[in-house]
Structure formats: C-alpha cells, structure tokens
C-alpha cells in the first residue's frame, strides 16, 4: 500500500473548500494510501473503510460515545442521547422511541406531502434559493409537526442553528465553542416552553404525560429533546439541499426518482453523507483494522468515506437510485442509530417524487455556497431555477 496521498492525512483536509464541495477524491486517496491513520493534533485514529467503521459502531464493549469514561469533561449542555452509554442511555432512548412510535406516521407523511405540494406549487420557471425557501421551512414544519409544537421564528432559528453545528468541529476550531453554548441555551428555552405548550398529540405531549409516572434524568431528557429538534430539521434540510445538488451534478437522474423512491432515498443518504464524521473513545486496548488502538485514544469514523468504499459499494462514486445492496452508515448503526430516520426518509421521498412528477428540471442560476463545516456537511445557499434544462455548476465557499 502506497503512503503517497495528494491530500494530507489530516482532518483539516475535510475543511478545504474543494473538499466541502466534493469530498470523494479525499476519501478515495486516504483509503488507497493509509485508510486507518493517526491524527496527532486531536489524539485520534481516522478510519475510512466501511468494515472498520461498522466494527467500531458494533463493539460497544470497546468503543464508547461517552468521553467521560476516558476521563474527559463533558459540559452539562452536551449530556444527551448521542453522548451517553448504558445505563444512562436506555431509559431516555426508550421514552423518546416510544413517543416517536406512538405518532400516526401515515397521517404525518400525508401532511408532509401536502406541505411539499404547496411549497412547490407555482415554482415552475421561478428563481428560488432552495435552502431557505424550500429545505429549511419544510424540515422545520415537519419536525414541529412530529413533536406537536408550533414552528419557531425561522430568522431566529437560522441565526442560532449554525453555531450549534459549528461546535461539532470544535476540536479543530475551539473558538466556535462559546457561541455554540449560547445558541444551545437559546434553543433550550424554547424546549422548556414546549414541555408545557404543545398540541395534545405529538412527541412532546407523549413525553410530558409519561413523566408523571416514569423517572428519567431530566437534564439528559431535555438535552436529547433539543438534539431531536435540532437534528430533525438541520440534518434533514442538509440532506434535501445536498440531494438537489447531487441531482444537478448528475443530470437525467431526478426524473427516475419516482420509479425508485425507497432505494432512491437510501442512495441519496449514502451519496451525500451529510453526517460525515462520528467519534468514539476507545475503552480497552485492542486491535482493529490491523492497528493497535489504546484505551483513551479517539477513533474518528469518516462515515462519508465508508459510504463510498468500493469493497462494499459497486461503482461507489456513481449516484444509482436503484442501488439494491446499500448498507450505508449514514444514519449510524447499533445503540445510537438515528431515531428519526423514518421521518427524514419520508420527507425526502415526498419532495423528490413531487419535484420529478411536476416535470421540473433544475438549473442553478448562481454557484452554490457550501457551509464550512466538516462534521455535518451542507449547502448554505443553492439558487436554482425549476426549468427544462440541467447543467453542472461550480462552487463558492464564501460565508
Ligand atoms: C437526514 C437526516 C438525518 C441524518 C443523516 C441523521 C443521522 C444520524 C446519525 C448518523 C446518528 C448516529 C449518531 C451516533 O452514532 O453518534 C443519529 C442519531 C440521532 N438522530 Fe438522526 N439523523 C437525521 C435526522 C434525524 C431526525 C429527523 C431526528 C428526529 C426526529 C433525529 C434524531 C436523532 C437522535 C435523537 C439521535 C441519537 C440517538 C441515540 O444516540 O440513541 N435525526 N442521526
């Protein structure tokens, strides 16, 4: 195996403008040269092969989401489902999963489809900034419908949410942490309000009712509700916008979406991999992927790279909406697997089915602007015209 890569073996490479737009060349160069490398700046191994990433997610006895178990401090506001292990994790996961399952998902999907139709109506020939005019409002309305609460002010939400996302890259950019803590506190105030001000159905009503009889760690629960709300619109909106960009980059694919709605959604999640990175702490000295990993070391899983691993996916850089075998890691796997995958998928299916059926093709009328975040990839601005002709576009990363 050669160790010559055109791209430095550094997590900072994920923040380069050209990588933000298209990380695939970095993924394949890393996998082909050194697929399991040490990144000294953060004291972590970086894993790019699907088999290694899946193994780490499976081995809960060896790898933890709770960094307190290797002696790190976890600020109170970050104690949530994603960052705790058993015995803390199951009671809150069970409660939120029960609240999620209790919803009428067929009715929710029907309302989502109706919102999609209303939002797309009359867009033929119009110039639209897809992120702010379609993806964000749609995903905020959907998650609030699921939670059973009134959508908050979008200007406020789009001003605080990026600060929360920035903290996911906090290891590389410690200067973003104070703004992220302040943003989380603002969202926490809304979550506390929703605990008492909600519809009689919806996840908040279910949780509030159960709290009369079930005893769970309240801080863990409220932080987890915050992250459910935040992931519910931010990850989902990024999936929609990155997917539209994928359709622009791969002309003649959108119109095939209605023939393959289920495999098509899975493929969009694999191909766009907006959750690009997951992190775990090693609990016990072990060997994985031919490397010795010691207790206390970090393990950074490049999910985006795993999702393009040719050992698992034939022609991995092609967008194939009818891909049959698609064991992507885009929603995670195992104990911490995404709680809202079904809702995110249903919304994606509704949007692109409707867009394709309306006969819209998509033409960019300015270059897309990417978010400069490495952990949660995304498009910050995507100006498009819904028209007759599709052309690939260049990019800018200006903030
Ligand atoms: C495209 C949209 C989404 C993507 C790509 C995504 C991805 C993920 C991933 C990769 C994880 C695993 C984290 C880990 O292992 O450390 C996760 C966990 C989670 N997701 Fe999502 N998510 C999406 C949408 C949603 C939605 C709509 C909701 C809420 C309705 C949601 C709620 C959660 C929660 C609560 C967890 C933590 C689960 C746990 O630790 O037990 N996500 N998500």
Automatic annotation (TrEMBL):
Key words of the record: Heme, Iron, Metal-binding, Monooxygenase, Oxidoreductase
Domain of life: Bacteria
Gene Ontology molecular function terms on file: heme binding; iron ion binding; monooxygenase activity; oxidoreductase activity, acting on paired donors, with incorporation or reduction of molecular oxygen
A Pfam family reported for this protein in Swiss-Prot or TrEMBL: p450
PANTHER family the UniProt entry points to: CYTOCHROME P450 YJIB-RELATED, P450, PUTATIVE (EUROFUNG)-RELATED
Similarity remark: Belongs to the cytochrome P450 family.
Name of protein: Cytochrome P450
Organism: Nonomuraea cavernae
Lineage of source species: Bacteria, Bacillati, Actinomycetota, Actinomycetes, Streptosporangiales
């Amino acid at each position: 195996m050669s160790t010559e890569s055109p791209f430095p073996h550094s997590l900072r490479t994920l923040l380069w403008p050209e990588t933000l737009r298209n990380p695939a060349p970095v993924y394949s160069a890393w996998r082909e040269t050194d697929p399991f490398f040490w990144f000294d700046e953060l004291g972590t191994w970086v894993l790019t092969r699907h088999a290694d990433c899946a193994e780490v997610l499976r081995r809960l006895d060896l790898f933890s989401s709770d960094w307190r178990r290797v002696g790190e401090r976890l600020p109170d506001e970050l104690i949530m489902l994603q960052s705790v292990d058993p015995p803390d994790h199951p009671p809150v996961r069970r409660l939120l999963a029960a609240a999620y399952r209790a919803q009428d998902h067929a009715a929710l999907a029907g309302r989502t489809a109706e919102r999609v139709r209303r939002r797309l109506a009359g867009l033929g020939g119009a110039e639209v900034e897809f992120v702010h005019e379609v993806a964000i409002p749609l995903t905020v309305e959907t998650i609030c419908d699921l939670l059973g609460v009134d959508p908050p002010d979008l200007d406020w939400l789009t001003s605080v949410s990026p600060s929360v996302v920035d903290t996911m890259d906090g290891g590389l950019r410690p200067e973003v942490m104070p703004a992220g803590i302040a943003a989380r506190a603002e969202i926490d105030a809304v979550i506390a309000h929703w605990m008492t001000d909600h519809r009689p159905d919806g996840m908040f009503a279910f949780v509030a009712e159960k709290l009369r009889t079930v005893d769970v760690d309240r801080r863990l629960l409220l932080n987890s509700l915050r992250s459910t709300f935040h992931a519910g619109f931010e990850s989902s909106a990024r999936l929609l916008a990155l997917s539209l960009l994928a359709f622009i980059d791969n002309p003649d694919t959108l119109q095939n979406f209605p023939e393959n709605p289920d495999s098509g959604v899975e493929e969009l999640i694999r191909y766009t991999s907006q959750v690009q990175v997951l992190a775990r702490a090693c609990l016990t000295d072990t060997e994985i992927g031919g490397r010795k990993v010691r207790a206390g070391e970090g393990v950074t899983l490049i999910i985006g790279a795993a999702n393009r691993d040719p050992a698992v996916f034939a022609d991995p850089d092609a967008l194939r909406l009818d891909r049959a075998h698609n064991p992507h890691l885009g929603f995670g796997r195992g104990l911490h697997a995404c709680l809202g995958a079904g809702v995110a998928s249903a919304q994606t299916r509704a949007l692109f089915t409707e867009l394709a059926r309306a006969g819209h093709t998509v033409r960019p009328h300015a270059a897309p602007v990417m978010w400069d975040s490495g952990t949660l990839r995304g498009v910050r601005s995507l100006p498009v015209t819904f028209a007759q002709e599709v052309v690939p576009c260049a990019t800018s990363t200006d903030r």
